[in-house]
Amino acid sequence: MEHDTIVEIHSLNHWFGKGEASRQALFDVNLTLKRGSLTVLMGPSGSGKTTLLTLIGCLRSVQDGSVRLLGQELNGATDAHLTALRRRLGFIFQAHNLHESLTAAQNVMMGVQVQGKVANRLANQAATHVLGLVGLSDRVNYLPANLSGGQKQRVAVARALVANPALVLADEPTAALDKDSAADVVELLKRMGKARATTTLLVTHDNRILDAADRILTLEDGRIIRVEERAK
Amino acid sequence: MIRILHALFGRLPIGWLQLTHNRPRFAAALAGVAFANVLVFVQLGIMNSMAAATYRPYKLFQADVMISAEDANSLTDGGNVARQWLLQAMADPDVTDGMGLFLANAAWDRGAKDISLTTFGIDPAKPGFLATEITAEINFLKVKDAALLDRLARGLNRDEAAAVRPQSPLTFETQGRTITAYTTFAGGGGFSGDGYMLVSDQTFLSLFPARRSAAPDHILLSLRPGAEPEAVIRRLKVLISDPGLRIRSYSDAAAEDLRYQQTKRPTGIIFGFGVLIGVLVGIVIVYQVLSTDVSDHLREYATFKAMGYAPGFFLGIVLEEALVLGLMGFIPGLTLGSLILKLMGMMTNLPLAMTFSMAFSVFVGTVVFSALSGAIATRRLAAADPADLF
Fold it and tell me: Which UniProt keywords apply (chain B) (predicted)?
């Protein structure tokens, strides 16, 4: 079962704030993500998309309901357990969030080294290989300051994918990019996802990604109001 | 460098990369650490020279027990001791010999620069109480108005001092008398006097007519070999019916003198505080650099947290930075500190120098306090919440 079901969510509720001031952000969310699927999460701002993403990404504690990630229950999991699970995920943020003091290769190496001690040479090889896959083999030793916006986001994609994560979580990965760079990154996510059978959950408004999606979920006021399955 | 550090830490040396990324700030941080080091070195150097300068006069003599007045906190201050106690002390079977030690400052008028000589009056018939280096010269003191002069005295020309020999003695006037120095010894200026002079007790009393032979400043006693000084001191305290007197072993007296100089006299306290302030300045500089660095990289750290790095990883980065700053700041600090101490020693004629133990303790202190401020700076890491990245 674990092999095919990456994420399984049952009656998930989430609140922000305490007591009288508390506000419910998610209502009775149920969701399953299968291996290799690309799911797009849509909805107006404040609808709870990001909250859902951070709960699946082990960045917030589950308050009520059940989230099973890679077969493990997140409700009640310890911080150390959540940290360990995060190492099996790949994160892509709206901003590239690269470390300005590290070269492209060193930034990608950070995604390797989180898995444990790796020899400098091996980590560097892995990083260079993935940078080649995202089309940056001639920018391996560049600092982020010397890369364009699209190139930086491609380095970020390489960093998220270098350790072969079971699940990639992306939050508006193309929002800060111009049209051409955005197209590159979408193409890349699609291609890499297919090649490595990676499960992808991404929040976006970008129509080019909608075309690539297997399934489109729409959230409104903390509830999933529409599920659209796309034929392959 | 990066490869070496990588091999050392088993991960990318992110702290090193972060620090060296902003070169001007890195240079300023190193200069700050070096400055704190220099500050501590100079103060420690002065404290050390104080110890050397305090022990210096004690090293001119050898004795087992010293009897001093109640208010004699150092060799040079305090009242007199009645000579009768010397005779009393001799009654103890373990006390083999005793000598009254007279002491006063004699001003040697040298025109523009006067030399203040701490003058000791001793019994020329008792060479056993003199340091071995000068025992042989004690016979010169049997002549009236003869002296042994400190060739390292501040204000005394080195060549002039080197020329002093029995065949070519140096004659000078002090305290209204003409004194002849037949030979010299190595003393050196301290914090109070410029140098030392040894004369016989008779010469001393004619130099300082207000002083009486029945009241020396200290009484030095030597004990039978194998005698237990503590036991003798206990017996002497019974034998000598003046409870106000200080009866201590000679080495205890020197150590108490130093403690007094370092903790009770303003100079000692000032330099002690100087060391403390140097350490505080160092902590503040390293803390400031590291906490700014942590704040500047909160977003990157939050990203690393999201990727699954555990809290210990970030502590490791900040400690790595603290070590880099401490180690690399120490080298210029040591160099500059040694130079400044050498220069100060040349200018003041005080025994100022960099010692290995000073360098070692400041090095250890720099690394420990850098790591400490690094550990404090990591408290800001709590603000790096990966959930805020989305």
Answer: Cell membrane, Membrane, Transmembrane, Transmembrane helix, Transport
